[in-house]
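User: I'm new to structure prediction. If I give you an amino acid sequence, what do you actually give back? Let's try with this one:
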Amino acid sequence: MPRGRYSLHDPHDHTPLGEEHFHCAPGPSGWRYVSRTVSPSGRQTGTVDLALDELGRPIRLELHTADWQVRGAALDGVTWVRTDPSGMHADEGTARAHAFTGTSPAFLVATARLLRLTPASPATRVRLVAFTDPVLAPRDVDQSWALMNSQAHATDNGPLVVDEYQVSALDTGERHTVHIAGDVVLAAPGVELEDLDDPPSAFS
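Assistant: Good question. You get back a string of structure tokens that encode the predicted 3D arrangement of the chain. For your 204 residues, that looks like this:
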């Protein structure tokens, strides 16, 4: 069960945004990721709980910030409820999208797992519902994913396969690179892996 810490920063001006402390693991029905985020001062700012089925679809998503929370799942596309902590102001939403995304590195692993690309695969378009911090407002985003390279690196625990993805935002044309090993993001815009207690888990 990988357990570690990501540092988060603004991908444009590199302003530190805090850290995400996480653990994740594959299981008989899919994969689960749980984390908490803290500000640069150490104050807890939110939590993430994401569970995927064996096909990579989100069967449960729970996001919390100080003032908002979201619960969602794949159902006729994706469905979610966004509410304040008191539950007095709840908004339901649905979209013809494949999955969710957001600032957590968990969503990069989830999208890669959903698409299951190979280096020979053409670039694949995917529609996602993004929840933006800190208010968790939903918006549709269209991306293109391509697996550019998959390379094994020797480690003390055996070969570590690192996948290099090129991710393009279809509305702006902006492109960036994401490196993923198993169920851990090694590097991505705004994300750096700082600590990892156990090797990444390999998906079957």
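You can read the tokens as a compact description of the fold. Here is one thing that stands out. The helical segments are 106-115.
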